[in-house]
Amino acid sequence: MAAAAVGLMAAAGQRLACGWGRGLVSAPRRLLWGARRKEEKEVKAGANIAIEEKTEPTEPSVICPPPRSRNYVPPEDIQSLLESHVRKIFGPSLPDQWQQTSLKENKLKFRLLDQLASELGHAVPNSQLHLMCSAQDVLTFYSTPVKEGSKLDELRASELPPNLKICWEQ
After folding, report:
1. Which of the residue ranges 13-27, 40-54, 68-82 has the most confident prediction, judged by mean pLDDT?
2. From CA 98, how far away is CA 86, in angstroms rounded?
3. If you count DSSP H runs as helices and E runs as strands, how many of each does the chain have, helices first?
4. 137 and 131 in contact (C-beta within 8 Å)?
5. Under a CB-based contact definition with an 8 Å cutoff, are residues 143 and 77 in contact?
6. CB–CB of 85/138 below 8 Å?
7. Residues 6+ apart with CB under 8 A from 27
8. Which stretches of the chain are assigned E, i.e. beta strand?
9. Which end of the chain is more exposed for a tag (fewer CB within 10 A), N or C?
10. What digits encode the pLDDT tens for the residues 131-150?
């Protein structure tokens, strides 16, 4: 019964007292929602005018980056390149087995992978970052060539047996 009385008082627009000592002024929902719609229409109308007044930008803006080329051919000197980066980032006091260098410290791991990605144009995907635990793991990743293309592209390039027919055109 108390809830019904509160509801009637709120519908009438009277001041309601909260448990914390503040009062709320409640207005009928139609007034609140109608006012919001009017404000939205005014904002949209103002936005249309603002868009029309804009001039053409002097420099082209990039909405999204161009798609990355997934082709990657490792350089011949990848091992010496990686060793120099590891020695530069982790310091010259590394042991002779630099491949065993641990990548547990995230800042150093990030610096190494970031420099290699920018220099080689091939970044470690997010899904494989947790697998990079040592310099040997990074060497294995950057030594593996990546070829863009699907299995259908490979089939198209190969010579098919005469009893196999694939329709390439649709």
Report:
1. 68-82
2. 8
3. 6, 2
4. yes
5. no
6. no
7. 13
8. 15-17, 23-25
9. C
10. 999 999 999 999 999 887 77
CA distances from 98 to 84, 88, 123, 131 (A): 10, 12, 21, 18
Residue in the block written with tokens 């060793």: 83
Whose CA is closest to 112, among 95, 129, 93?
Answer: 129
The amino acid present at 134, given as its one-letter code, is S
Q: What share of the chain is helix, strand, coil (3-state, %, to 5)?
A: 50, 5, 40
For the record, the structure tokens of 105 come out as 């410290």
Token duo for residue 69: 């080329």
What pLDDT digit, counting tens, does each position of 83-133 carry? 999 999 988 778 778 889 999 999 999 999 999 999 999 999 999 999 999
Please give the C-alpha separations between residue 27 and each of 1, 8, 62, 104, 122, in angstroms, as whole numbers: 21, 11, 46, 59, 60
Q: Which tokens in the block code for residue 101?
A: 């260098």
CA separation for the pair 66, 16 (Å, rounded): 57
| Contact (CB, 8 A) for 103 and 109 | yes
